[in-house]
Design goal:
Blueprint (H helix, E strand, L loop, with lengths): L1 H26 L27 H12 L2 E6 L2 E7 L1 H10 L1 H4 L6 H6 L10 H21 L2 H19 L8 H17 L8 H15 L2 H7 L13 H25 L8 H9 L9 H30 L1 H14 L15 H14 L8 E2 L4 E3 L2 E3 L4 E5 L1 H4 L42 H18 E5 L10 E3 L3 E3 L4 E5 L2
Helix pairs in contact: 6-12, 7-8, 7-17, 8-13, 9-11, 11-13, 13-15, 13-17
The structure holds protoporphyrin IX containing FE.
The site of protoporphyrin IX containing FE (HEM) has 25 residues, from helix 6, helix 13 and helix 17.
Protein name: Cytochrome P450, family 76, subfamily C
Family: Belongs to the cytochrome P450 family.
Keywords: Heme, Iron, Membrane, Metal-binding, Monooxygenase, Oxidoreductase, Transmembrane, Transmembrane helix
Amino acid sequence: MQVINLFCSSGFLIAFIIITITLFLLKSRRPYGSPPGPRILPFLGNLTILLKGNLIEISEKLKATYGNLFSLSLGGKWIVFINGNEHLREVFVKHAEFFSDRPKVFFIDKVLQNKGVTAQNGHVWKTHRKFMETVLHNLGFEKNSMKSTILEETQHFLSVISDSNGEPINVSYPTYAAVSNIICSIAFGRRFDYNDVEFQKFISVMYELLSNQNIPVINLLPILQYLPGDIFGAKRILQQTHWLKKEFKRFIAEHKDTIDTENSRDFIDEYIIEKGKNACLTDDDFPIAVFELFGAGTDTISNTITWSVLYLLKNPDIQNRMRDEMLCAIPTDRLPTMADKLNLPFCEAVIAETQRLANVLPFAIPHEVTEDVMIGQYKIVKGSHVIPNLSSVQHDEELFANHLKFDPLRFIDKQGKFYGQERIVPFSLGKRVCPGESLARMELFLFITAIVKKFRILPEEEGIFPSSQGQLGIAYKPNPFKVRFIEWN
Ligand code: HEM
């Protein structure tokens, strides 16, 4: 009897092992027709690929080997990268109805808690998005107040830089504070002094959270958030999210006490009013909707401005040409306004070239495909995470020869006019295209031209320049560096 039991149990064990191995081997093969990619290892999938450098370099190498569509198996999910202008348009514009959902990756699920615009899908996403677009439009353009808010903030920012008296400073702090203040004006109807201790705490928490280089990695490999000892800092990220949400709830409560529904002051007032009429806007969504304005509207813009300072530092001739153009087009005693834009094609080209080279959201935000869809010869299987590799356009050597060179003339035609901005896609494309694009363009123009009009940007030490390497958190930001701003007489 014991022999039979032993036989049965070892038979069961052998069957179990065979089935498990078969399942793992099946799991280790790409679904039939999927885009190619590196060999998938049992248990590990393509995990080892993440050890081979940063994500931007890895994706460049994979694109060179496998072409514009390649796939990886990470954390039990299929991740498909879409590269190059043509494929990005085919996937996210032509087949937008299947490729516009968001997957539940760590940042969307745990930080944004599946609320607000960025994280939601379907009807609820459309409603939130429409609401955000309407408020940004009304606050920004209809009342025409956004331009003056930005110009006012630019003055505060310039005076902080002026106070440095030509000593080396890290420009990313005042830039971050200034750009956050513009979102404060939109969200809370007020700005803060840069020395305000509460404001400093608020932006330092936001800055640390959004700069966390582990976020893209945990998004790809969610299991990392559960490792003991919080090696990947996921718990800290969630504590910071909790703290920020608490702060936003405080502002919301203050607004509820003081609102005049006939005279909405800001985004929070608009939300309170709309929430009464629209069941999709809920109390749970509210603090996240405010958080997302900061998350999306601060890091991206302030990093682009910081990159522009770095590139201009390394290219004094380009600073001079921008300044000469401004001196011809604008009286010396004032800063550029949006009305000057058409007369400043070279300045516009510098901003476009900064967006191209800096490439601050190289992988946009992940999408998910809702059906099996054929793209050319490849099938993208339902449920795959789909990554728009915007970097593959901005750094396409065929479109932009010598693509690592900062050369604004790529955006100037033979007549000296600004042209060809549509060749880059920093705001992504399709239904999820950035809803803050107009605001972002305004801020980039007003800040970058103001800096160059007022100051000469010089290195901390003559002849020594910081590296152009960056770090990828939510956005791609330059490594910390210092510069001297010398006021023109
Ligand atoms: C230089 C500045 C900016 C850049 C480069 C940028 C870029 C992007 C990109 C690449 C996406 C992802 C689109 C996709 O999933 O395919 C995005 C989404 C988004 N952006 Fe921006 N953005 C900027 C500024 C802003 C500002 C100022 C705001 C708001 C005030 C904003 C709000 C959003 C929101 C809410 C989304 C999610 C849209 C959705 O899921 O439907 N962004 N942005």
